[in-house]
Design goal:
Number of helices: 1
Largest sheet: 4 strands, antiparallel
Radius of gyration: 35 Å
Shape: flat
Order of helices and strands: HEEEEEEE
Strand content: 15-25%
Number of strands: 7
């Protein structure tokens, strides 16, 4: 078979495959069942008195960790930045060594249960490193040697 003809056949088959796949995806999108809309349901029963969640001070083992971000939805996880750099992706129930077990993840916080009790880390921005310029004070330098004075009547040198 001629190489030009082989390239033409391969190109024609590729185009036919792409068009067929695109048509099938469009057909499938029109005939797919519409998902049911979620309905809101109460998450807890109301109580007569307020019962705030006790959040203690952050234990020494957890100092330096920063909550960099959270995702809450069908999949829930939090991104924790470690004190020496690096990140850890945590889901509820996982354990962060030295800190504790992840109890809950909210939109702007993560709750841990550890040896020192329950505590929360709040979402916080990363520290910005701003370079500072060091100003050197110039040391007095000797004056440059004086050049001989020229008269204005001289032409070129």
């Amino acid at each position: 078979m001629n190489p030009d003809r082989a390239i033409g056949v391969i190109l024609a088959l590729s185009i036919a495959l792409v068009l067929g796949l695109g048509g099938w995806l469009l057909w499938r999108g029109r005939h797919a069942p519409v998902p049911a809309l979620p309905t809101a349901s109460p998450t807890g029963s109301p109580t007569a008195t307020a019962s705030p969640t006790a959040t203690g001070a952050i234990p020494d083992a957890a100092r330096g960790y920063r909550l960099a971000g959270t995702v809450v939805g069908d999949v829930t996880y939090a991104i924790i930045e470690k004190p020496r750099g690096g990140n850890e992706l945590l889901r509820p129930g996982q354990v962060l060594r030295g800190v504790g077990q992840v109890v809950a993840i909210g939109e702007d916080r993560i709750a841990f249960e550890g040896d020192d009790g329950r505590f929360e880390l709040m979402l916080s921005a990363a520290p910005t490193v701003t370079p500072t310029r060091v100003r050197l004070t110039p040391s007095p330098s000797p004056a440059p040697p004086a050049s001989p004075a020229r008269s204005t009547s001289e032409s070129s040198p």
